[in-house]
Amino acid sequence: MGKSGASLQWVPIPGGEFLMGSEEYYPDEAPQHRRKIKAFSLSATPVTNEQFAAFVAETSYVTIAERPLPSGEYQEFDAAALAPGSLVFTPTRGPVDLRDWQQWWRWVPGACWHRPAGPESTLDGIADHPVVHIAYADAMAYASWVGARLPSEAEFEFAACGGATPTPYAWGSVRDPGGIPMANTWRGYFPFQNDGARGWKGTSPVGSFPPNAYGVYDCIGNVWEWCSDLYTSSHRSSLQHHGPNSLAVSPISCGCGCGPSASLNDQPAGNAGMVQRVLKGGSHLCAPKYCLRYRPAARSPQAEDSATTHIGFRVARDGS
């Protein structure tokens, strides 16, 4: 185990059964079904810049964003496009067509975990923020170093619920009960006006928002987090191929016709050769009119080799 393993705060998550997924929002969250989870432990917060820096200092690990793209696989790109870098969120000047994500994401050469906004930026003042620009392999490397692993999608969702049945949020039916933000999500008009959650625009220090009933912080909002599962376009495969750590039974239908249909398949999504994993939790960029994914049931696909300014991770280990 790496030296920084002790710096992680571990939260025991009791085993139990819960309703996974939703029939009410995005198609890939269906069908809602019962899952059984064995007891495990989860890091109380996403991995921070300080914790990841300790890993890099000891191992000299180089993240995917810091490596040049292999020219043999991207012959259509020039040398500049193959340089190390990552995607950085950049607010637009005003309203734009929300169907075109390229209007607020830009490729920045030199952007990486310790240069989050680009080559001129630093980690000064944000040591306790979640590390970002993390690709799947980077998260796996850190997890191995601390003698841990990435949580499964079911484990993450179970932990994010905090022992409650989301309606639709882990804390209840209102996004901001009493006008108090419960998670770091977008406030204002996406993607050009953000008033900040409790004053934070972008990532916030881990633990800045209330923990759930299990004592876990930032399972919702702040940064998207990698899970170990391959992404599929529905939960149908969970009802057919469940492992020893889960039990799938009959799906629950809401009766409104928004449930599973024959058009939803079980195959990993993405282009040929592009492996996609599940991201959970939503991020500081999730806004009600664009990305209503700051809910435990929400999920998103991400190519394993992709890194951005709103993707981080936390780690898990077997047993409580």
TrEMBL record:
One of its GO terms (molecular function) is formylglycine-generating oxidase activity. Gene3D superfamilies: paralog of FGE (formylglycine-generating enzyme) (3.90.1580.10). InterPro entries: CTDL_fold, Sulfatase_Mod_Factor_Kinase, SUMF_dom, SUMF_sf. It comes from the Bacteria. It holds the Pfam family FGE-sulfatase. Residues 9-317 form the Sulfatase-modifying factor enzyme-like domain. PANTHER family: FORMYLGLYCINE-GENERATING ENZYME, SULFATASE MODIFYING FACTOR 1, 2. This is Formylglycine-generating enzyme required for sulfatase activity. It comes from Leucobacter luti.
